[in-house]
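Recap from last week: sequence in, structure out.
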Amino acid sequence: MKIHIINGPNLNLLGKREPETYGATSFEDYFNELQSVFNEVELSYFQSNVEGELINELHQCLENKIDSVILNAGAYTHTSIGLGDAVAAIDVPVIEVHISNVMDREEFRHVSYISKYAAGVISGFGLKGYELAIYNCTTSK
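Predicted C-alpha coordinates:
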Protein backbone atom coordinates (compact mmCIF):
# COMPACT_ATOMS: atom_id res chain seq x y z
CA MET A 1 0.00 0.00 0.00
CA LYS A 2 1.26 3.45 -0.98
CA ILE A 3 0.22 6.40 1.20
CA HIS A 4 1.37 9.91 0.37
CA ILE A 5 1.38 12.67 3.01
CA ILE A 6 1.07 16.21 1.67
CA ASN A 7 1.61 19.15 4.02
CA GLY A 8 0.87 22.76 3.18
CA PRO A 9 2.13 26.16 4.27
CA ASN A 10 4.16 26.67 7.43
CA LEU A 11 4.18 22.97 8.30
CA ASN A 12 7.89 22.98 7.48
CA LEU A 13 8.21 24.93 10.75
CA LEU A 14 6.73 22.22 12.98
CA GLY A 15 8.73 21.96 16.16
CA LYS A 16 9.65 25.64 15.96
CA ARG A 17 6.40 27.50 15.27
CA GLU A 18 3.90 27.85 18.12
CA PRO A 19 4.91 24.66 19.95
CA GLU A 20 2.02 25.18 22.40
CA THR A 21 -0.36 24.62 19.46
CA TYR A 22 1.63 22.40 17.10
CA GLY A 23 4.07 20.58 19.39
CA ALA A 24 7.85 20.51 19.63
CA THR A 25 8.59 17.75 17.11
CA SER A 26 9.64 18.47 13.53
CA PHE A 27 7.63 16.69 10.85
CA GLU A 28 10.76 15.04 9.50
CA ASP A 29 11.41 13.44 12.91
CA TYR A 30 7.78 12.41 13.20
CA PHE A 31 7.77 11.02 9.65
CA ASN A 32 10.69 8.75 10.59
CA GLU A 33 8.62 7.48 13.55
CA LEU A 34 5.65 6.83 11.24
CA GLN A 35 7.87 4.84 8.89
CA SER A 36 9.02 2.68 11.82
CA VAL A 37 5.48 2.06 13.08
CA PHE A 38 4.01 1.42 9.62
CA ASN A 39 6.96 -0.42 8.07
CA GLU A 40 4.62 -2.49 5.86
CA VAL A 41 3.32 0.69 4.18
CA GLU A 42 5.18 2.64 1.52
CA LEU A 43 5.00 6.15 2.98
CA SER A 44 6.08 9.24 1.07
CA TYR A 45 6.02 12.88 2.05
CA PHE A 46 5.79 16.26 0.33
CA GLN A 47 5.58 19.75 1.80
CA SER A 48 5.19 23.10 0.08
CA ASN A 49 4.22 26.63 1.00
CA VAL A 50 3.00 27.15 -2.58
CA GLU A 51 -0.64 26.42 -3.42
CA GLY A 52 -0.02 25.43 -7.05
CA GLU A 53 2.68 22.95 -6.04
CA LEU A 54 0.23 21.28 -3.65
CA ILE A 55 -2.35 21.01 -6.46
CA ASN A 56 0.28 19.55 -8.82
CA GLU A 57 1.30 17.05 -6.14
CA LEU A 58 -2.31 15.90 -5.72
CA HIS A 59 -2.60 15.41 -9.49
CA GLN A 60 0.69 13.46 -9.50
CA CYS A 61 -0.82 10.95 -7.06
CA LEU A 62 -2.80 9.45 -9.94
CA GLU A 63 0.30 8.85 -12.06
CA ASN A 64 2.23 7.49 -9.06
CA LYS A 65 -0.60 5.03 -8.29
CA ILE A 66 -0.97 6.26 -4.72
CA ASP A 67 -3.59 4.31 -2.75
CA SER A 68 -4.44 7.08 -0.24
CA VAL A 69 -3.45 10.67 0.49
CA ILE A 70 -3.22 12.35 3.87
CA LEU A 71 -3.54 16.08 3.32
CA ASN A 72 -2.86 18.83 5.83
CA ALA A 73 -3.35 21.89 3.66
CA GLY A 74 -2.74 24.25 6.57
CA ALA A 75 -4.34 27.65 6.08
CA TYR A 76 -5.11 26.82 2.43
CA THR A 77 -7.84 24.54 3.81
CA HIS A 78 -9.85 27.66 4.57
CA THR A 79 -9.03 29.69 1.47
CA SER A 80 -8.32 27.47 -1.53
CA ILE A 81 -11.16 26.46 -3.77
CA GLY A 82 -8.44 25.17 -6.11
CA LEU A 83 -7.21 22.62 -3.57
CA GLY A 84 -10.77 21.48 -2.94
CA ASP A 85 -11.26 21.08 -6.68
CA ALA A 86 -8.01 19.08 -6.93
CA VAL A 87 -9.15 16.69 -4.20
CA ALA A 88 -12.46 16.28 -6.01
CA ALA A 89 -10.69 15.70 -9.34
CA ILE A 90 -8.50 12.78 -8.32
CA ASP A 91 -9.77 9.25 -7.87
CA VAL A 92 -7.69 8.70 -4.74
CA PRO A 93 -9.15 8.76 -1.21
CA VAL A 94 -7.93 11.81 0.71
CA ILE A 95 -8.03 12.16 4.48
CA GLU A 96 -7.90 15.76 5.68
CA VAL A 97 -5.76 16.16 8.81
CA HIS A 98 -5.30 19.12 11.14
CA ILE A 99 -2.94 19.09 14.10
CA SER A 100 -4.99 21.58 16.10
CA ASN A 101 -8.72 21.49 16.73
CA VAL A 102 -9.78 23.95 14.05
CA MET A 103 -13.26 24.25 15.55
CA ASP A 104 -11.70 25.63 18.73
CA ARG A 105 -9.85 28.37 16.84
CA GLU A 106 -10.74 31.49 14.87
CA GLU A 107 -14.08 31.36 13.08
CA PHE A 108 -12.53 31.53 9.59
CA ARG A 109 -10.85 28.18 10.34
CA HIS A 110 -14.27 26.54 10.71
CA VAL A 111 -14.64 26.54 6.90
CA SER A 112 -12.90 23.89 4.80
CA TYR A 113 -12.95 23.79 1.01
CA ILE A 114 -11.53 20.24 1.20
CA SER A 115 -13.80 18.41 3.67
CA LYS A 116 -16.69 17.96 1.23
CA TYR A 117 -14.45 15.86 -1.05
CA ALA A 118 -12.38 14.10 1.62
CA ALA A 119 -12.95 10.52 2.72
CA GLY A 120 -12.65 11.77 6.31
CA VAL A 121 -11.39 14.56 8.54
CA ILE A 122 -9.18 14.23 11.62
CA SER A 123 -8.67 17.34 13.72
CA GLY A 124 -7.28 18.17 17.13
CA PHE A 125 -5.17 15.10 17.98
CA GLY A 126 -1.78 16.70 17.36
CA LEU A 127 0.65 14.79 15.18
CA LYS A 128 -1.16 11.61 16.25
CA GLY A 129 -3.79 12.57 13.64
CA TYR A 130 -1.44 11.39 10.88
CA GLU A 131 -1.09 8.01 12.58
CA LEU A 132 -4.87 7.74 12.92
CA ALA A 133 -5.24 8.56 9.22
CA ILE A 134 -2.68 5.93 8.19
CA TYR A 135 -4.35 3.37 10.41
CA ASN A 136 -7.68 4.18 8.75
CA CYS A 137 -6.16 3.83 5.26
CA THR A 138 -4.64 0.44 6.08
CA THR A 139 -7.70 -1.05 7.75
CA SER A 140 -10.50 0.24 5.53
CA LYS A 141 -9.42 -1.50 2.33
